[in-house]
Amino acid sequence: MKHMLEYIGKKNAEFGTRKIFGWLKDSSIDPKQRLALAPYMAHFVFSFMDVNRFILRDMDDSHELQQLVNIHTNEDSHHWPWYVEDLKRMGYDKQQSFTKTLLFLWGDHCIKSRMITYEMTAIAKQLTHKEKIILVEVIEKTGNVFLGCTADVCREAGEGKKFIYYGDHHLASETGHTMGTHNIEALLHELVLSEEEAAAGIKLIDTIYGLYHDFVDEMYEFASSNTYQDLLEAEAYSSSINTRMRKTAVPTSIQQAVN
């Protein structure tokens, strides 16, 4: 497994070069604008809660590795309230019609944010215990990259401790002991993989990072195409998305039905 962890480290370094992270690190951009990605993440945050609760977790499985996964998912599935609080603090807690909310959550501007959880669900259902551990490692490593950047932005804005999801609090919870176990690194290094398991592990890592690349690239498009002020002042999010982002237009009949 040590080789797998090293490979994840390499892929994570590549992940950290995506445009969204350059955007988050660009101090010439107003911190509020850099965090304008927050509304975009709504579907991901809540659907990932369900991936943790119902897909990765299995309380009936007594296998040691599954128990480690259970510990991790129990912690991660409770992060969504932090996101809700940050949305309120950012001024993004809008009152709008239910139909407009649906159009926003399932709009073309956030297809990849939905597909990452759909695809991950399909993949996770087929994984062995060792492969689940690999998947959780990738999830944690990508989260560390993202939250490290957003926490820096929050600190720059003087809000490092006020923001819970995007600030220091969430980052600290993610950069503790992996999967909530103090000796996890030693345990993972001791795991032995056959040639077939190693090959499957590499394929899994490549696939999951591919999903994360698509997700954060789409996130960048949202954040860089919609100004913080426009998002703040828009009557409803479904009507505030920059049209150049849309891959296909919403049918006129649907627009008329919800207006």
List the helices and strands and how they pair.
Elements lengths: L1 H14 L3 H7 L5 H4 L7 H15 L7 H13 L3 H11 L7 H8 L5 H14 L4 H28 L11 H7 L9 H7 L4 H31 L2 H6 L18 H7 L1
Characterise this structure.
The model is unreliable at 243-255 (pLDDT under 50). The protein has 259 residues and is mainly α. Helix 8 packs antiparallel against helix 12. The chain has one domain: Up-down Bundle (Heme Oxygenase, Chain A). The chain has 14 helices and no strands.
What are the salient characteristics of this protein?
single chain; 14 helices; 66% helix; Heme Oxygenase, Chain A; 259 residues; mainly alpha
User: Class in CATH?
Assistant: Mainly Alpha
> How much helicity do the residues have?
55-70%
- Measured by DSSP, the beta-strand proportion falls in under 5%
Quantity of strands, as a count: 0
